[in-house]
Design goal:
This protein has 232 residues and is an alpha/beta fold. The chain has a single domain, classed as Alpha/Beta hydrolase fold, catalytic domain (Rossmann fold), CATH 3.40.50.1820. The protein is built from 6 helices and 9 strands. It has helices at residues 33-44, 90-109, 124-136, 155-162, 184-196, 215-228; strands at 10-13, 21-26, 53-58, 62-65, 71-74, 117-122, 142-146, 171-176, 201-206. The strands form 2 sheets. The chain has a 7-stranded mixed sheet, sandwiched between helices. A two-stranded antiparallel ribbon has the order 4-5. α2 crosses α3. The longest helix has 20 residues, at 90-109. 41% of the residues are buried.
Amino acid sequence: MATIARISQANIVQATRKHTATVFFFHGSGGTAEDIKEWIDILNRKKLQFPHIKLIYPSAPSQPYTPNGGMMQNVWFDRMAISNQVPEHIESVNSMCQNISDLIDREVTNGIPLNRIILGGFSMGGCLALHLAYRYKTCIAGCFVMSSFLNKGSIIYEHLKTRPEHNKVPLVQYHGTIDTLVPIEWGEESAKNLKELGVNVKFIPLQNIEHELSRAEIQNWKEWLLNILPDK
């Protein structure tokens, strides 16, 4: 890539009392911070906010996206196709992981330790979170992915084979059973591969859900979140 795409903005929901934990939520390809926040707030039936957790919804930069014919789109990284059969665009993924790592480090500098930070996201955003959790920020409190997958032969698998001590981040994975864009089998295979590498994975199929977020999913995710990041 000739230039490194930078994150220019984020939608931030502050903790209502004392800020002791932070959650990063990455949107899917073509989305924005505002889109994903609004979607979650609607499903939650009110603005999602916590007494102690700051929510950070970053927006992906606009950059050329191969599955969209090379047109500009808000994406975290490029990929050859929406398929688990193609190689990962490692340079693009690594560039964004380094960019996001700077944002995470800023939280640490401001007094939030890595073991009080959770990373996750929807679709492509979930994939980004997996790369961060098991290759870059391996001491975070947890990782969540929604309607996401890893490519066969992912660099994450290779990394965990050589650095098994990086498998400690607990993972919850949600996936719709009738997802036609990202078949649930891709998600199940990713979960199986990570489990075999020692990751504590909880895979939750969402009955009759397409490639979308659901109210039941958000409620379950909130419970998981507060179990890992209780109020101090």
